[in-house]
Design brief:
The chain is an all-alpha fold. The chain has a domain at 1-32. The chain is built from one helix and no strands. The protein has one helix at 3-29. The radius of gyration is 22 Å and the shape is elongated. The chain crosses the membrane at residues 6-29. This is Methionine/alanine import family NSS transporter small subunit. Keywords: Membrane, Transmembrane, Transmembrane helix.
Length: 53
């Protein structure tokens, strides 16, 4: 393999595995909330209170 191909392969491997490690660490540090968002019950983001259906 040429040196350019090796560098590109190393860059691609670092991007893919680095993203996996980063996302895993991020989810460990800041886990997803188990409770629903407060606007989910009434959908105020789509229908303001004055237009309740």
């Amino acid at each position: 393999m040429t040196p350019v191909a090796l560098v590109m392969m190393i860059v691609a491997i670092v991007i893919i595995w680095g993203g996996l490690v980063f996302s895993t660490v991020f989810l460990i540090v800041r886990p997803l909330s188990a409770e629903p968002h407060p606007l989910d019950d009434h959908d105020y983001d789509r229908y303001p209170p004055e237009y309740e259906v």
